[in-house]
Amino acid sequence: MSSTINVRKDWDTYFMDIAYMVSTRSRCPRRHVGAVLVQGKKLLGTAYNGAPSGVPDCSEAGCMIAEQYELAVVDGVEQMVKKERCIRTIHAEQNLLLFTDRIDREGSTVYVTDQPCWTCANMLANSGVQEIIYHRAYPKDSDKVNWLMEQKGIAFRHMTGYVPPEQTAGITAP
């Protein structure tokens, strides 16, 4: 008779799994993002990306893409880089900050499926969190965001080797 031993997930995997499950609420056709706020081992809030409550979302009204250009150094050469962002959508990190209290964020950890963009990183840097853990990289803003987190003394970790829950397969962009 063989017995199966269930291996207990570590806390980072547990909370990132929850962030991915939260992302399933998103109706964004471009990317499903989820975020969770944790104090110690206590889950204090969840959020996902989407249009403001009561407003048609991207799946109903289409994405509102804004193009922005930014001077960046690529392989040692300055060049203009085009960025496209949907401005209909409130990012998961922004919603998390809107729907949680500052006192709960002081010294807390945010788990987010995707590395925060520059705007979200700025907001998180001023929110009281002490650590941000993400899974999928966001190369467009990566250098600036890493620099900001270092300046603010916020632990900023990329969960490499993490595999999202099977239930979220097919809803997340690579």
TrEMBL record:
Keywords: Hydrolase, Metal-binding, Zinc. Residues 10-146 form the CMP/dCMP-type deaminase domain. Its cofactor is Zn(2+). GO terms for molecular function: dCMP deaminase activity; zinc ion binding. The active site is at 93 (proton donor). GO terms for biological process: pyrimidine nucleotide metabolic process. SUPFAM superfamilies: Cytidine deaminase-like. The keyword Protease does not apply. The keyword Cytoplasm does not apply. GO terms for cellular component: cytoplasm. Zn(2+) binds at residues 91, 117, 120. Belongs to the cytidine and deoxycytidylate deaminase family. This is CMP deaminase.
